[in-house]
Fold this protein.
Amino acid sequence: MPALVVAGAQWGDEGKGKLVDHLARQAHVVARYQGGHNAGHTVVINDEKFVLHLIPSGVLHEGKLCVIGNGVVIDPACLIEEMDGLINRGVKIGENLLISENAHLIMPYHMALESASESSMGKKAIGTTGRGIGLAYMDKMARTGIRMLDILDPKLFRERLRPALDNANRLLDALYGAPAFELEEVFEKYTGFAERLKKHIGNAGFVLNKALREGRNVLIEGAQGTLLDIDHGTYPYVTSSNASAGGACTGLGIGPTMIDAAMGVVKAYTTRVGNGPFPTELEDELGECLREKGGEYGATTGRPRRCGWLDIVALDHAVRVNGLSGFALTKLDILDGLDTIKVCTAYRLDGVTTREFPPDAATLERCQPVYEELKGWKDSTSGIKKLSDLPVNARKYIEWIEQRLGIGADMISTGQRRDELIIVKENFR
Ligand code: IMP
């Protein structure tokens, strides 16, 4: 199987980092296709915690080519900081890191505009990570963005920067009374970043297609999750990229026929950070308990995550949107000790029962969850590595999800550490 996409099936933070780290062992190339440093992928190796924001989680295995695709928006300061942090901890970053020359850059004015816009929206704010992600994608679509290859050529860079910066300064002043950015200051800073990054910048699409033609295993790592997808998520409370599997083609420059499978990462319950509807949210002690036990605080911003029961209606939507061939279930151990586990199987919307997920936020806000109750388990699942060692009711919970979604669980994560994992099916040969 040459290309496998791993995408979040909920609102992000499903634990993709650990699974990508595992799958990367058998991959030759690991590639990120969208998002930016709004993502935080956590991998724990021998009690040492690594949080990756931009660099694919495959970097923690020596000898893997890690690609940051054209669909990713890059804050070069953050990327360099991440590279240095890894190098200081003994991780090799050299020819194994390839950044697409067509990836767009997050500029300082993107962050300033986002922060001013979010503050001005009050209760209607999206609750972004404050990283300038949406504004960078806005400039990309408006054709006023600055790409990696632009900063490699000082003349071209200045030509592209001047109108973009003038425009941003005018907006900052007129809409928010915020201070302007100096062209020379931004120019100097970014040409410095270019100097550091230039040896990693190249034609990522060409390299990826060559690897695929040669039959190499390519692992494609999604960030955020399907319900945060700009087209298929709970708009407008979404991120600004195609986080679902479809984004892998445009975000890497590979064709759909190159992708063999898509694995959805599903947390055993649901979490969400930022604003927006969340039908199965638990705003009580149990929600608090899941947050504390599951360490549900944002890996990027430290914000507490909202917690709730598993939502099959939303997951079914993710199965369709991503064309999922299987799923990985994470954080099963956090549900240990519960007498009963509730699972949402339908919504009540304006007096009618529906199993259709309305991605529009206003409609979803009106949906009431319809629950089915499953029996919990008392024994610990923490660290279990064999399916047959799981408590009977934990296995029943997994089987129940499999039946509802019509796809199988390929992997089950039972703890934070790298080896706390049950492998049901290997995706790469
Ligand atoms: P942005 O991506 O910073 O523009 O934020 C848009 C929405 O996506 C907000 O609700 C964020 O909390 C959410 N979001 C962005 N990245 C992540 C992530 O990696 N995990 C979970 N939520 C995220």
The mean pLDDT is 96. Residues 104-200 form a domain with the Adenylosuccinate Synthetase, subunit A; domain 2 fold (CATH 1.10.300.10).
